[in-house]
Write a structure and sequence with these properties.
heterodimer; A: mainly alpha; 17 helices; 0% strand; elongated; B: alpha+beta; 14-stranded mixed β-sheet; three-stranded antiparallel β-sheet; globular
Chain lengths: 355, 425
């Protein structure tokens, strides 16, 4: 890693002494190191001689320009006058192409004409024009890469930290440290990976809140259909349910799995309540999931809904017969967890099979 | 448990690796500055403690500001005016530090800024801004405030405190990050501080630059786990329920320390004494200079600073006796791209001194007070004695480090977090 970086620096450093051609080489070398172009592609690229600048070329060029404009003003001495002159010519060539045709034709026509037109300019402007003229015939893309190469080479020489692909200077974004919680919330006894569970795929999907809307709708309609048929228990899955489950969600549960529990005695209804999944809670209740089932701590789904402050689910469970005064192992009731701002007007309505 | 230790070790390695990488990187700016260099870390015994550059004369400091890129100019920001504070607030709130995933951005309030930047002895000259000449838009900022800091309680040069500044709120507009303004800002604030014959500074950063004086870690105590999960500040482990998480983090209804109340102006002289007595044990600490200073930094301000004291009642001299102090400041973050939540309200532990109460119960009361003030999370560094209560009070380890730095001052050996008794805002 390090040695490759140094090799690149050395190449770039050597190239810096070779003027424009060296600069272009330095840039290409940088480009191939940074982008790891396949060799064949790179050959093609060299053949085309960057006639049409790629988006990346333009980006690099803009970065290099900004760097030059800020560096010259901030810490003098990085780019001397000859450098700047050369860069100026390349810049004009890259952004505007050949020096204005009519005037340059005039210049070419006679030495006298050139001297005459130049004499009206300050020596500084004259030198700038000459630098631009020197790039005549160069494609814009090539001028851009030459420019970037020149900047890179000079920076390598001066051991300046200018990188095209690099991140901004570490101080630029400010100094304050940010931090968020590193570890997921977990039970001490289980560790971060959670307890070992041997529950069904369906149950796992409910616990992970990964049941599709289709499967929930199918679960709900199965119960409604069963109720309409006057059966005391809903029937086994119908074909429509099977098709709902075929679309990637876990296979539809036979009715006994609505009563499945995990290692901590939590039911599907506990998990649906904890996840705040009101639709699934409704569908499970329609399938006669027990709203008063208890986990190992004696808590009901209603405890969960109260603690998590899911009002819709809380009301739904109460409507389905959940006991607001069921004490858990520590003697706490769902009602005791109800937040202050819920009091006054809890709607205990539930429209389902028992209403 | 063994796994856990392995993970801890791995993370420490990761941080070491981060440091190693930082040490191999070229820091062209910092290598030109009077700070301890990475190369000096290896043979730190030869490092001489104290200022890097000595016998400096304020008369020799350049009188004009450093050159800026064309189109920009220096300015003093007037934090004392509502518009001035608002302007800095806007720059910071839109461009200040974001976390690695760009979910949160610090959102210091303008009230907070006018508190943090105007302690006794502050200078508008040290509230340095960069403006676009044409539009006058503020595009960069850096600040210094005066402070007396002890460096090394056994260091002959540093033990009685060094008059220095605390550098903070360095911020460059997002669109100007390639202009390398930060080094110019640092040079300029250094110049402006040097003009007042002050030659040292302390500052903190999340990044590693040459060379940290101490590397500390953030810890977070969840007060509102449901919201913290919803905004992505934390997450539920596999097969962990939200209800259980909420139950685990539920705090008692009321504080337990008898005599705990908000600090008032009359308490300031006693708070000053308690602070300086307590902070004497740390190698890096603020030496509070006056009652005024204590009043400024500690008197409660809504949504800025919250300070509580334990009032032991009237003593024999008829004066109320203050025995313990507990304090935290408010530093919310903007939540980026969340429909339901706009702001994460975070309380940050400030200075806590437990003389009659246990530190653990005093800090539990801090959590309760912060919850009652509607904070979502309580953050603390592992500095001072903070590591003592973190496990019992259910703080979780953070993924961020905070590095402490000194400018123009070297120490032989880096400090442990427990040796640090300084909180920078």
């Amino acid at each position: 890693m390090m040695s490759a970086e140094w090799a690149r620096r050395l190449v770039v450093l050597g190239a810096a002494g070779l003027g424009l051609a060296g600069a272009a080489y330095a840039y290409r070398h940088h480009a191939s190191a940074a982008r790891a172009l396949p060799e064949r592609k790179q050959e093609l690229r060299q053949e085309e001689e960057e006639a049409v600048p790629t988006e990346k070329d333009v980006q690099d060029f803009e970065k290099a320009c900004e760097f030059v404009s800020s560096t010259t003003l901030v810490s003098a001495g990085v780019f001397g006058p000859p450098d700047l002159l050369e860069l100026y010519g390349l810049y004009k060539q890259a952004t505007e192409g050949d020096l204005n045709a009519s005037s340059s034709a005039g210049w070419a026509a006679s030495a006298w004409g050139w001297i005459k037109s130049a004499s009206s300019l300050s020596p500084r402007e004259e030198a700038k024009r000459r630098s631009w003229l020197r790039c005549r015939g160069m494609s814009r893309g090539r001028a851009m890469t030459m420019y970037v190469g020149k900047v890179l080479a000079r920076c390598a020489q001066r051991e300046l930290d200018f990188k095209l692909d690099g991140e901004p200077e570490e101080a630029e974004a400010g100094w304050v440290a940010t931090s968020t919680l590193r570890d997921a919330y977990h039970d001490e006894e289980d560790g971060e990976d959670g307890p070992e569970e041997e529950t069904s795929d369906w149950f796992n999907a409910v616990a992970d809140d990964a049941v599709t809307a289709d499967a929930i709708a199918a679960l709900a309609s199965r119960a409604t259909a069963a109720a309409a048929a006057g059966e005391t228990t809903p029937s086994t899955p119908t074909t429509t349910l099977a098709s709902a489950s075929a679309s990637g969600s876990p296979s539809f549960p036979p009715i006994e799995e609505v009563t499945e529990r995990d290692g901590k005695l939590r039911s599907c209804l506990h998990w649906a309540a904890d996840n705040g999944n009101a639709d699934l809670v409704r569908a499970l209740l329609l399938n006669r999931a027990d709203p008063n089932s208890r986990d190992e701590d004696g808590q009901t789904p209603l405890h969960y809904a109260a603690i998590c402050e899911y009002r819709e689910i809380y009301d739904m469970l109460v409507g389905a017969g959940a006991d607001e005064n069921a004490e858990d192992g520590q003697g706490e009731t769902p009602a005791s967890w109800v937040p202050e701002h819920w009091r006054g007007g809890s709607q205990k309505q539930f429209i389902g099979w028992n209403s | 448990m063994e796994d856990k230790r392995e993970i801890e070790a791995l993370l420490e390695q990761m941080h070491l690796k981060e440091k190693e990488e930082a040490m191999q990187k070229k820091h062209s700016f910092w290598e030109s500055q009077p700070v301890k260099q990475f190369s000096e870390e290896q043979n730190s015994e030869t490092v001489e403690e104290g200022p890097v550059q000595v016998n400096q004369d304020a008369k020799g400091v350049r009188e004009t500001g450093y050159a800026l890129p064309g189109g920009y100019e220096w300015c003093d920001c007037d934090i004392s005016s509502a518009e001035g504070a608002e302007e800095v607030y806007t720059l910071l709130s839109e461009n200040y530090v974001e976390d690695d995933d760009n979910m949160f951005r610090f959102n210091y309030s303008s009230h907070f800024l006018s508190w943090a930047l105007q302690p006794p002895g502050f200078k508008p000259f040290w509230h340095v801004g960069v403006r676009v000449i044409k539009s006058k838009k503020l595009v960069a900022f850096i600040s210094a405030i005066p402070a007396k800091i002890r460096v090394g309680k056994n260091s002959p040069k540093g033990k009685d405190g060094v008059s220095m500044v605390e550098i903070n709120f360095l911020c460059v507009h997002k669109k100007l990050r390639t202009k390398r303004l930060a080094p110019v800002l640092i040079r300029e604030i250094t110049r402006r501080v040097n003009l007042f014959d002050i030659w040292q500074a302390s500052y903190t950063a999340g990044v590693i630059i040459p060379t940290p004086l101490a590397t500390c870690r953030y810890f977070h105590r969840s007060l509102n786990p449901k919201k913290l999960i919803e905004v992505g500040f934390s997450k539920l482990g596999k097969r962990m329920t939200l209800s259980r998480t909420i139950k685990l983090h539920k705090l008692p209804q009321k504080t337990s320390t008898p005599g705990l109340r908000r600090m008032s102006k009359e308490d300031a002289p006693q708070v000053l004494e308690l602070l300086n007595a307590y902070l004497a044990q740390f190698d890096l600490a603020c030496l509070f200079q006056s009652v005024d200073e204590v009043e400024h930094w500690f008197l409660p301000r809504e949504n800025v600073i919250y300070t509580y004291v334990v009032d032991a009642g009237e003593g024999k001299d008829g004066k109320r006796k203050i025995t313990d102090i507990m304090s935290f400041y408010s530093l919310p973050s903007t939540i980026i791209g969340n429909e339901h939540h706009k702001e994460l309200r975070a309380a940050f532990s400030y200075y806590n001194i437990a003389n009659t109460a246990s530190l653990k119960s005093l800090m539990e009361d801090a959590l309760i007070c912060a919850r009652d003030e509607n904070f979502d999370v309580f953050n603390a560094l592992d500095i001072m004695q903070n590591a003592e209560f973190m496990k019992d009070l259910k703080f979780g380890i953070g993924d961020g480090h905070l590095q402490y730095y000194l400018y123009n001052w070297k120490v032989k050996k880096a400090l442990t977090p427990q040796q640090v008794g300084l909180v920078l805002l």
